[in-house]
Amino acid sequence: MNAMSPTPSKKYDLDFARWVYDNVDGGDRMALCMQCGTCSGSCPIGTQMDHGPRKLFMMIRAGMKEAVLTSNTIWNCVSCYNCVVRCPRQVPVTYILHDLATVAVREGYAQATESDNARFGKAFWWSAAKYGRTDERLVTAKYYFSFGFGEGYKKGMANLPIALGMIKTKRMHLGMPHKCKNTGELSKLLKKAAEMEAKKHG
Amino acid sequence: MSDTTPRSRTILVVGGGIAGVTAAVEAAEAGHDVVLVEKTATLGGRVAQMNRYFPKLCHPTCGLEINYQRIKKSKRISLFTLSSVATIKGGPGAYTVTVKTQPRHVKPNCTACGDCATAAETEVANPFNYGMDKVKAAYLPHTMAFPMRYVVDPIVAGTAEGEKIKAACKVGAIDLDEAESSFEIEVGAIVWATGWRPYPADRLTAYRWAEMPDVITNVEMERLASVDGPTKGRIVRPSDGAEPKRVALIQCAGSRDLNHLAYCSRICCLASMKHAAYVREQYKDATVDVYYIDIRAHDKLESFVQRLKRDPQVRFVKSKPARIEPGPDGNPMVCGENTLTREVYAEPYDLVVLATGMQPSLAEDDRPAIAADFDDYGFVFPEGESIGAGVSTGALDVSMSVQSATAAALKAIRVVSAG
Q1: pLDDT for B353-398, tens place per residue?
Q2: Is there a contact between B224 and B237 (Cβ–Cβ < 8 Å)?
Q3: Is A38 in Cβ contact with B320 (below 8 Å)?
Q4: From the CA of B340, how many Å to the nearest CA of chain A?
Q5: Assembly ipTM
Q6: What domain range includes position A148?
Q7: Which of chain B's residues have a Cβ under 8 Å away from the Cβ of A82?
Q8: Which fold has domain B11-102+180-195+361-417?
Q9: What's phi and psi for B153, nearest 5 deg?
């Protein structure tokens, strides 16, 4: 047989599955996946995922690293844990998807760093790390303006009525952002954690 | 130094299903005395509750009939129904076993005429049909009961109705004063043929068996299809008695699932093929969808699957459904992902059958402390003096249970013949 594979240009990394089993949070349990489809069927937004967890796991096994790390499945998970509860092999699907998202960002995949959820995640983390709290106004502003000034202004104005409604019903406060008691200690703690993580992935 | 402990050559078989009955007759026909203890009022166990066997779709009545004949012909088998093992002392070759017997309230001179049932008014849930219908408080367990003797439910003992039932019996077989009793026996070996029970479907909360009447289990399907079942053999929806046009069969409902039964129950795939055949025999225009992870039809039974696959009205969907939801018209809607097409579906059905698995009968607190070892799932681990027959040792179909029971009889014979 000398026929070409259907997509000869596709890059496969045959060590990828093993790497995921060993390095991704919950990856060791992923090795037990039997492709039953309970996860993708349980997913409340399964129709909005390009692949869904089951197929993504199969793609990991097939070594389709690039396709996996540029998939929207890892970003669209809403952490409802339906799949984790129902998985007959007790695979922590949610952890795996979130950790794969981190890998995608770390490895600099454009689809990952520019996705809506990655932008929001970044804004959320910025506020959490800086104040020890998330401030609705700052998180949304940071997220909106990550698209550029013009786009950010447009998004902000579009959501202004919602913000005003929230202020009226006291769901959003005016004034200084909420902070935890000792932000200095928090930043030391996070610095240490980042050091430890860098060592692990070094 | 010689062993002076008196040894018994009697074999105790615990459980009167197909495995227990087989082990008992095989040991007895090989020349050993056998005591057969059965918890319910009749022999036959789960096999008697089946409509037909796969793959030939023959009725279990004929196999049971042959074995009942063998018991009747044998002078070596002592049968105790409504009895269970309470305590065991001693060791291989010399066990002292206490057997507890629940009252039947009907003496052996019963002629099974049925006059008591006619006189009875109170109705009790019928365990033979998994509670899908009711029987009178004086009842014959089922048409293939052995011994062929009625049972009076203790609920009517001491009531006016009880006296009426007693008066109706022409041969004076009713004894409402019978109480629980126990006796001791000396045996040399014990064969555990304690069998299985269907995995409780109410634990599969995502499949809503407890809430939705038209979601049933595979064992309930067997009763629906049986002529002596609650619908006299017509497969109809329990909610409204209508003929189902679209039927879904869901495999691995609880089996191969670390949250439920970690193992494959082995028989459910073939049992579902049989259910597809039942539906297609009764309804020419009905369609059947089989939802599966992979079809496990071992050995020669593959041909039975192929036969069903040739039927254009039987569709195979490679998917473990995630959940069952009530549809807009109240009918069950099966939701999940088709793993071959990656399509997320929500299909409405008239009737959904869950292929629930086999769980060993002996619950943690009923397990004997000696004379048996158990694996992590509660199945008898057969080694040394721990002798298991049939499904007590793992999920098996009927023919494999019979083979396992014959092997168990031989092991028991070796234990009682040693020394």
Answers
A1: 999 999 999 887 788 888 999 999 999 998 888 999 999 999 999 9
A2: no
A3: yes
A4: 10
A5: 0.86
A6: 116-200
A7: 322
A8: FAD/NAD(P)-binding domain (3.50.50)
A9: -65, 135
